[in-house]
Each structure stands twice: as C-alpha cells, then as structure tokens.
Amino acid sequence: MPLKADTITKDYVKDAGVFADIFNYYIYGGRQVILPEQLTERDSTKIALPYGADGAVVPVQKFRDVQKLYAAMTDGKMEYILYGAESQAEIHYAMAVKNNLYDALEYAGQVEEAAKSHRKEMKRKKEQGETPAEEGRKIPSTGEFLSGFWVNDRLIPSITVTIFFSSEEWDGPLSLFDMMDVSDPDVLACMDNYHVRLIAPAQMADEEIMKFQSSLREVMLFIKYSKDKENLSRVLAANERRFREVERKGGRCD
What we know:
Elements: H1 5-14, H2 16-28, E1 39-41, E2 45-48, E3 60-63, E4 66-74, E5 77-88, H3 95-127, H4 132-135, H5 142-147, E6 158-164, H6 185-189, E7 197-199, H7 206-209, H8 216-224, H9 229-238, H10 240-248
Parallel strand pairs: 5-6, 6-7
Antiparallel strand pairs: 1-4, 2-3, 4-5
C-alpha cells in the first residue's frame, strides 16, 4: 500500500536541511542564517486541558507535523526559537485556527514547564532546609506562586509555517480576521489577529522559489508546473543537474 501524501511530505520536511531552508526562506529571504546543525527535533504532541460544560476538564491532543528547536548565539547570548512546519496536500480552510492553537498550546506548555521547574526547586530547597535568604534570592510573590510563571521567566518564541504541496492555488483564509464577518474597526481593534504563514508554489514567482537552497527548490518548481508540460520541460532543462540529484536521492515529491 503506497504511503499517504501527508506522510511522505511530513517525512520530507523533517529533514534538517529542508526544514532550515523553509525558515531561511520565509524569515530571511533565502539567506542561510539557520543551519541544520542548530536544529533539534522536538516532541510534536501537545495536550491542553480546557474547561468544558459545567467545569468538566476535557483532554485535547494535537499533533504538529514537525517541530524543531533552534539554538544559536546572538549578541553574546544563547537564543532559542521554536519552528513548526505544517505540510498540507489539501487546502485547510481553518488553518489560521489550527496553527494559532498549536502556538497557544506551545506557550501554555512552556508556562506549565516553568511552574513544574519552580515547584521542584522549591521542594528541593525545603527538603534540604535551605531558605531564599541563604541563597540570596527573593521569595516568589503571590502572583508568581499562583501562576507558576515568575516575573523574570521568558517564553521561547514559536513560529509556524504551512507548506502547501499542491499545484492548486490556496484560496483559504490567511488570517483569523479572514474567517470572520466583522467590519467594525472598534471591535477589530480589541482583537488580536493571527496570520497563516504560507508557502504555496502555484502563487510564487520562479525568482522566489529559486531562493530555496535545498531540494525544496526543485520540489516546488516541479509541483508548480506539474500540470503545464511546456513550462515543466523548460524548468527541468534549465535545472537538469539539480533535478537529477534530487531524483537520485529519491527526494522528489509529486
């Protein structure tokens, strides 16, 4: 039985070189800022416990396609960013909600991890008979204790990009506001929008696709012209060496 398209594209995007290429293109316009060796695979499972009817706790489990942690020295200090990639073979008309949920769950998870870390450290100090005064550290405020997130704690940024592996044009909403029928500027001013960061080959000029440095360049070009034999032949001829290399490695997605 052949693998599903989403399984193939997910495995393809997991490649550190391809993954870095996605974000180097989207964030840095193709400049090679993010290096594959600076990326670490992350567990992509996210679990939230929102309150349901009558205060019931409802478990929710979501799965990102691929998520990696980026770590690099910036201005003399280590900087961390979480990058998530969502592979789509079909248009998802609620992509803004889906990706927004992933990022929100990521931040909620970080807050919970911070709280666990603080509770563990306070328990250790209590068991060893240490006091904050002895360590030269302040006692957490009531707000810090209740939230589990202390005033000097910081979140790691989470950025999600959707890659549309199709020759069709994406006609789905590209933001939360696009999914709503609200025009009152005063109402909109009180809301936070969320934008879908999209890579869709059918809506990209060749010059943009050429900014990719990995085999994703050939994959995007092939997909874009997969239904246009004349232009596909032109693109294949102009990039013959790179296409042969991609085919040799079995990296072609069609």
